[in-house]
Specification:
By secondary structure, the protein is mostly helical. The protein is about 75% helix and about 5% strand. The protein is built from 6 helices and 2 strands. Strands 1-2 form a two-stranded antiparallel ribbon. A hairpin with a 6-residue loop joins β1 and β2. α2 runs antiparallel to α5, α3 packs across α4 and α5 runs antiparallel to α6. It is rod-shaped, with a radius of gyration of 35 Å. The N terminus is likely disordered.
Length: about 180
């Protein structure tokens, strides 16, 4: 007879084969999906870069002192001087800041959605595993019952209570179920 035995096993970093002996529970699997997934790490980096872009755009609204703006004071280059000393007066700087802020918010939403999708996928696999394990146990139980029934039919056939070949036909069908 066949028995089915599956285990969720921890993978060691860099290994293609399961590390035997250490099983992961649901919380550990979810933690790995949330933190150790390459996709999640990549999205976290994009989120960090988007937040940095917002800080840079906010910084572009603050006055700054450059050598060219000091020279512009003496040469009369009013636009350059105003752009450095009063950047918050230019609408393009505000538009750029708002655009970066919106992109960063969208990136945070995307990051959270990716983490949630990863965790849902792991959750689904985790529960499917236990559902399948319960199904395999039930199937093994039924196959054992069919084998015992086949033995009982064989005994009745030996006592000539059933026609010859009945046990063979029953066992052939049971074997067909086993191999499926």
């Amino acid at each position: 007879g066949r028995t089915f035995d599956l285990k969720l096993q921890k993978m060691t970093e860099g290994d293609d084969l399961p590390y035997l002996g250490e099983e992961l529970d649901r919380d550990q699997l979810l933690g790995r999906a949330k933190l150790a997934s390459y996709d999640v790490q990549e999205e976290a980096e994009r989120t960090f870069q988007a937040r940095q872009a917002v800080k840079e755009a906010r910084g572009n609204l603050l006055p700054r002192l450059r050598l060219s703006s000091l020279i512009g004071v003496f040469t009369g280059d009013v636009v350059d001087v105003a752009g450095d000393f009063l950047p918050f007066l230019f609408p393009s700087n505000w538009y750029r800041f708002e655009a970066q802020k919106s992109l960063a918010e969208a990136q945070v939403f995307s990051f959270n959605a990716l983490k949630a999708n990863q965790m849902n996928a792991v959750d689904g696999i985790y529960y499917s595993y236990f559902r399948d394990e319960a199904l395999f146990k039930k199937l093994n139980s039924r196959l054992n019952w069919l084998r015992k029934t086949g033995d009982a039919i064989q005994q009745q056939e030996n006592l000539r209570l059933l026609p010859t070949g009945t046990a063979d036909a029953f066992n052939l069908k049971t074997y067909g179920l086993e191999t499926d």
